[in-house]
Amino acid sequence: MVGEFHGLYRMKLFYNGVQYRAIYDIQEEKVRVLVLFIGKREQVYEKAKRKKIAKK
Predict the structure, then answer these.
(1) Checking CA distances to 46, which of 4, 17, 40, 52 falls within 20 to 30 Å?
(2) Cα angle: 8, vertex 33, 53; to 5 degrees
(3) Where do the structural domains in the chain lie, given as residue ranges?
(4) Closest of 7, 44, 45, 43 to residue 27, by C-alpha
(5) What is the rounded CA–CA span in Å between residue 51 and residue 4?
(6) What is d(CA 41, CA 3) in angstroms, rounded to the nearest whole number?
(7) What's the distance, CA 7 to chain centroid?
(8) Global model pTM greater than 0.90
(9) What average pLDDT does the structure give for the chain?
């Protein structure tokens, strides 16, 4: 991803005909995937910005 979300990943999800996106980070040193935010496609990036979701 780019901008504020550089270094993070996204996944497309579909449930009951609605598109969702998950924003997540892969922490290889701890062998885990950390899901940071899930929301409807139309709003997910704006809501994640408001919650200050970014790779640190």
Answers:
(1) 17
(2) 40
(3) 3-50
(4) 7
(5) 12
(6) 17
(7) 11
(8) no
(9) 88
What is the per-residue pLDDT across 6-28, written as a single tens digit (0 to 9) for each? 889 999 999 999 999 999 999 98
Whether 19 and 36 have beta carbons less than 8 Å apart is answered as no
Q: Tell me the DSSP string of 31-53.
A: TEEEEEEEEETTTHHHHHHHTT-
List the structure tokens of 13.
């999800």
Name which of 7, 15, 17 is nearest 56 in CA terms: 7
pLDDT of residue 45: 86
User: Residues for the chain: how many in total?
Assistant: 56
